Amino acid sequence: MVKIGVSLVVTICALIYPVHLLDNGLAQTPTMGWLHWERFMCNVDCVNDPHNCISEQLYMQMADIMVQEGWKEAGYEYVCIDDCWLADERDSEDRLQPDPTRFPSGIKKLADYVHSKGLKLGIYQDVGNLTCAGYPGSHGYYDLDAETFADWGVDLLKFDGCNFGTLDMLVEGYKYMSRALNATGRNILYSCEWPLYLWPFHQPNYTDIRQYCNHWRNYDDVYDSWQSVKSIIDWTASHQNLIVPVAGPGGWNDPDMLVIGNFGLSWDQQVSQMAMWVIMAAPLLMSNDLRSIDPKSKMLLQNKHLIAINQDPLGRQGYRISRVNSFDVWERPLSGGRYAFAVLNRQEIGGPRQFPLLLATLPSWKTCHPECSVTQILPSYQDLGVQNLLSALKLTINPSGTVLFTVTLNEGLAAEQKWNWNMTKKQKTPNSVF
Ligand code: GLA
């Protein structure tokens, strides 16, 4: 009987909490930082392009600016190296080594420098024999590479999946590296691309992936274009039933880097990328040139209201709730019973369009009963006042732009109304003591 009771409790718990946490305690909220790939790619030409090539100087400069220009204060913490940092060969003891001309001081010195600024250092490797750009991969050296990263003081590993061999090797390699990182005893956040490489063959097992990774890429590399950003948003919406439930503190879906502040997105499209990454509880890893970013993009990336939503402690990923008349409506549940909404205008012809939003039609309509406070955050901050279920908000949204707002239950009024209602009920109850 007791046994049945215990197993019943275990089963119920497993049903309520089907997600197992990677036990490194990291990424309780989505990771924030800077990652070189989209903007700097595999530029190894330090002779002709010393300012933009992949070298220790690039990360030191980014670290300096992250402290000086408010990025660190806003929450951006990880300075991350991507592909193309390695020398062509391992050293005589099979250890990885950085390219000696581009990283003359070595990674440990670079990590010390980044740590001295109160920031963290991320590095890149690959589960297979070669990285995507053709440098030595980790296959066959998982333990040694994990120890090397820990010795150097690395804080994050982006583990790519090029050249993986068989599917078994891919899956086992990702799991092995997760255990190897844990075994070093150093806190190393583990960023995977495991599902991205599985999708061409079969649907990944996300419960499994979450047990080993702190975040995971699902879909194509982001490019500096609206087409690319849109395709990532659409992929996410069309797979939301599968991938949203698995996201939460300790493990996140990674839609790839923010390309805000580069060349390809209009202002409204930058607003849309930021809004959607915030709603999707995505890691906020910027890939841009912080040394020359324009002030407007900087303000958008450092917006504290947006960062607070992205980093909300409830840790629930948002989802698309409707697609109507070329408007996509997304919602994200937040702590304290609040919600964030994003309405994206998908029409790319004509001018700004109005979207009439009747609060009573939202799945989370109860937040506005009896009253709620609505605050618009994008494209500009605006208090939209106290609203109720009969309110129709008239949102004006530019082509490929987004309006993002939060809705907070008006607690005082709700409590008062509940009290009144209880009192009426009590007075009406025949055997009431009153
Ligand atoms: C893959 C990854 C990218 C980047 C490159 C580096 O394409 O998905 O994010 O790391 O490799 O070669």
From TrEMBL:
Its EC number is 3.2.1.-. Homodimer. The keyword Cytoplasm does not apply. Residues 1-21 form the signal peptide. It comes from the Eukaryota. Residues 315-401 form the Alpha galactosidase A C-terminal domain. It is found in: Lysosome. This is Alpha-galactosidase. Its main location: other. SUPFAM superfamilies: (Trans)glycosidases, Glycosyl hydrolase domain. Pfam families: Melibiase_2 (PF16499), Melibiase_2_C (PF17450). Belongs to the glycosyl hydrolase 27 family. Keywords: Disulfide bond, Glycoprotein, Glycosidase, Hydrolase, Lipid metabolism, Lysosome, Signal. It is an enzyme of class 3 (hydrolase).
